[in-house]
Amino acid sequence: MNTAAEKHLDTLIARYPVLAPVREDIAKAYEILKNCYDGGGKLLIAGNGGSCADAQHIVGELMKGFCRRRPLPDALKAAIIREDQEAGTVLSEKLQSALPAIALTDHQALNTAFANDVDPNLCFAQQVLGYGNSGDVFLGISTSGNAGNVMQAVLVAKAKGMKVIGLTGKDGGRLAKASDCAVVVPSQETYMIQELHLPVYHALCLMLEDTYFEA
Fold this sequence. Notes:
alpha/beta
């Protein structure tokens, strides 16, 4: 792990000492995500309720600048400008480099159609089937670790050669057992688990941003 990533992890534990027991799990999750992005992969994320909101939140931090500027590479800027001098100049300056991430919770037309026509419990699994490739990562968020639709997606992700990260609480449930890496925050109450999930994924997003983008 690079120095900048270590620093963010140190800051996280200093601010939230309760997370000290899962420090190494967070570090492992970072390494899995880094390997994914190094290989040109993407992150698929799913959860229910508050965890659905967390999935969308994570995508927002990865797909645009979080705490750093993310200017486009010079070669891409030049290519955009070649397409259209005026509009391309604006786009090349305002667009931001992204770490590809998709929240599987956001596709209402697809999810409701699949739920109505086939099986509502398989909506996330269907999207993992369609989007996922070997080398990608599936992040399942479940406070209990037992959300049925998340676990169905985990099964498909593993079958497709994807790595699986679980973000959960309580005893970790089935998600912790099935994941390549599980961050099981030390709490039993749903809302308290969710309160600890946020600083964990913020730290991961900061660690990744510092890895790929200069200050």
